[in-house]
Amino acid sequence: MNVPSVSVIIAVYNKIDWLLLLLSGFEKQSFRDFEIVVADDGSNKEFVHALNEYIQTSPLRIQHVWHKDKGFRKTRILNKAVLQSKGEYIIFIDGDCLPDRNFVADHWYNRAPDTILAGRRANLSQKLTQTLSAEKIRNGLLESTAFLRKVWVDSFRKITNHAEKSVRLPRSIYRMLPAKSKGILGCNFSLHKSDLLQINGFDTRYEAPATGEDTDIDLRLRWAGKKIRLLRFQAIQFHIYHTRLDRPNDNDRIFAEVMAQKKAVTSFGIREMQNDLA
């Protein structure tokens, strides 16, 4: 099998129903030269069994990269997935987000040297989330006028957020827009693998979903001389509704330490874990 141009890394933890929705979106991508790397932060046996069953019949190229559940270790499993990935270009997405059919194409065709593409997402209401199914997504639900109309109606009712981020413009128009820089969201960004390896990947000290998970890598990439370009009206994705879990964490202290040191290359990244991937 040919080496794919793109590796799409999906950060997951349990919630197989969400992942199957997401994968149905990747089944119908307009750009096909990609692999999926499921970066699994210790999901349970039921999740692993269901995913393996899906892989056996899926048209997608999928690697499942897993480690033991020892709490929130997303940055660590992302580094492990990067090491396993085969593509020279990497797209990151979270397991609670759904891509429209041009998601991979928009990241790939807008790539540029020393540039990170930072996409955004529209947040679906609970009502809209409950109407989703893998079959509907395979049949073009996320791109349909009827679905997008409902997104905007829910936005006016203030139960869907950032409906404007569901609008996709042709790539030719996007390229005419003034370049804007905005921070990376961990659920929707892409870059050349070499740029990520240059800063030694994600800092594995962040062990909670809060400050530092994506702000740290954004900052260190800038220190390494990379540009962050906002991917406006491209690479559309929808965030599945769910309640948010807050966890006590030490992320602010770690991020403050990174800010003070101003080192682009972390000492707690990919190189440090290559001999210990358990």
UniProtKB/TrEMBL annotation:
Catalytic class of the enzyme: transferase
Cite the Glycosyltransferase 2-like domain residue spans from the record: 7-105
Q: What InterPro entries would the database entry show?
A: Galactosyl_T_C (IPR027791), Glyco_trans_2-like (IPR001173), Glycosyltransf_2 (IPR050834), Nucleotide-diphossugar_trans (IPR029044)
| Keyword terms, alphabetized | Glycosyltransferase, Transferase
GO terms, molecular function: glycosyltransferase activity
Domain of life of the organism encoding this protein: Bacteria
EC no. given is 2.4.-.-
Domain (Galactosyltransferase C-terminal): give its ranges: 179-242
Does the keyword section mention Calcium? no
Residues making up the signal peptide according to the UniProt record = none
Protein name in UniProt: Glycosyltransferase
What is the organism field in this record? Pontibacter toksunensis
